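can u pls check wat happens w/ ribose-5-phosphate
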Amino acid sequence: LRLFSGSANIQLSQEVARYLGMDLGPMIRKRFADGELYVQIQESIRGCDVYLIQPCCHPVNDNLMELLIMVDACRRASARQVTAVIPYYGYARADRKTAGRESITAKLVANLITEAGASRVLAMDLHSAQIQGYFDIPVDHVYSVPVLLEYLSTKQLSDIVVVSPDVGGVARARAFAKKLGDSPLAIIDKRRQAHNVAEVLNVVGDVKNKTAVLVDDMIDTAGTISEAARLLRKEGARQVYACATHAVFSPPAIERLSTGLFEEIIVTNTIPIPESDRFPQLKILSVA
Ligand code: R5P
């Protein structure tokens, strides 16, 4: 078994390697003057079971391309099996056509990874479960829920209501609520006017005097989660926590999240968060 890291989240890869008691394999990564990427594996991997860790996070196109090049390099070096470990699967939100003449990028990315030569994929908290079916190779879909729940249990929260910030996240929030001692569920009726602009309208469910735990797969610009928190406060929630696996944190996420709306924002390290983007209410859990 050999483990290699792309450049997207070296710290997470190092933690995984430590956990497994292994070293990350040697690999050269270079960028040519015109921006093209170059990868070379620096040891023989002939006949090996190779795992490549690379979330497709910002800068998403570079990180995706680097993953494809790594997979291709391993295939051409006669690895027996190449598993693409993708803690954050970018381009996942376009998982169906919602208007004419659009692309389904989640499927396109699956095609690219498969075509590059991956034999298996290991992904965490895909935006939608059906993305597994976009691959004709095995997909292990793992969840951050155990890590989030373990942390939440240390907080000894009472009167919890789990809240889905939109209708699309109800199944995820329901599963979370079930695991959180069968907590009640509330749903935010969100209408989105344009990409990356969230508009929250209504809460379905009782949140008054409760500890609201918002659950989402990702926080991108934080429009969804901060509008949801504002509405929950308005509806009388006593405390508001947010849990999300992927801290995409595109601007102005940090400004929106550090306004005091939340007791705590709990995310994982599938995507690296620079020191400059950290603030007191942010808790980062490891999924290594
Ligand atoms: C939407 O379907 C997703 O689950 C997230 O709620 C959304 O992508 C978050 O985006 P933003 O933080 O920009 O509102």
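Residues 93, 165-166, 168-169, 196, 198, 216-225 surround ribose-5-phosphate (CB under 6 Å).
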